[in-house]
Amino acid sequence: MSLIVTEERSVEIVWPTLGITVSATLDDRNAALADALWQALPYRSLQGHALVAGHHLYHVAPVHSLLHLPAAQRVDRRTVPDGTVFCSRLQHLGIKYGPLTEPMPATPIGQVVPDDVDSLMEAGRAIWESVYSTKKPIVAEVRRAGRTSGHSLARMKATDPAADALISDVHAETSRIWLEAPRELTELHEGRIASGAGSYGTVVTTMLFVNGETRPLGYSTYGGLVRATVEGMPLEALRHMARVLAGTPAEFLGYCGLDTLNAFTVRLMALLDRIDSRDDFLAVMAHMALYVNCLGGWNLHLFPWDLDTCLREFRGWA
């Protein structure tokens, strides 16, 4: 039996360093997604800001099931009111706070209360400065209204000992870097690249390619493998697709400095043939997805986006 979302399901989204709290009410437009978020509360996450779409906030939500839960209603994000709250298969909790340009279908789960929309806009502007220029991380706390804050990352289990050991190590590393930038990425963004990656001593090129490989590895490869598992793809085909899709990007990212990710991937490839349970396969891929999505969030925060001050959008279209 699916749970019905009621008006009593109120959440608070808090940015402690900004001194801003907004309240939102979950609704029944996508009840399965809203319920998954509700059951995962409270948690904390590095707050991000859209870099292409416009006035939109998002962060990685530590909710494994967001990768595969079905959506009952999709909307064009550009057309909905400011303060609309979304959950997505990219494992994001997002909030629209102003004009958007990207025509992406999105799955709404609630709405910031009208009295808090101005505060949401204030938070959005401050978070943009954090991501674009200052690089001072801002953490979002999401909790049930009237409850205390807290944080934990759920750990799935596998019956195969080697698979469960990999899950344990990936979970521990994800927990370690969830609110603290990974050393490998901070060194990369400081120009310390042990392999020498970056033609003619360039650094921005390597940072750009790392970002370009990490995001689809989490969103499409591991997120896609989770969805394919839930949707019934045969296990042998799942193993084959994991080998085809995950190995090469991880090897390249290891060359660029993400040694931990590459080491996890090597272990994963070595144990694929012994995973004979769909539940085990799902658990491993879900943890890899969350880990890589966490890396992707830090990549987006650390990248020096203000390099574009010398290259601004042409506004003279007829």
- Tell me the structural class: alpha+beta
Estimate percent helicity: 40-55%
Strand content of the residues, in percent? Answer: 15-25%
Number of strands: 11
Please list the strands of the largest sheet in the order they lie side by side.
3-11-1-2-10-7-8-5-4
Distance between the termini: 55 Å
Domains, number? 2
Task: Describe what you observe in this structure.
The protein folds into two domains: 11-144, Beta Barrel (Cyclophilin); 161-305, no CATH class. 43% of the residues lie in helices and 17% in strands. A hairpin with a 4-residue loop joins strand 1 (10-15) and strand 2 (20-26). The longest helix has 27 residues, at 204-230. By secondary structure, the chain is of the alpha+beta class. The strands form two sheets. Strands 3-11-1-2-10-7-8-5-4 form a nine-stranded antiparallel sheet. Strands 6-9 form a two-stranded antiparallel sheet. The chain has eight helices and eleven strands. The model is unreliable at 1-7 (pLDDT under 50). The radius of gyration is 20 Å and the shape is globular. It has helices at residues 31-40, 117-134, 161-177, 183-189, 204-230, 235-255, 259-271, 278-302; strands at 10-15, 20-26, 43-46, 48-49, 54-60, 75-76, 84-87, 92-100, 105-106, 108-112, 139-144.
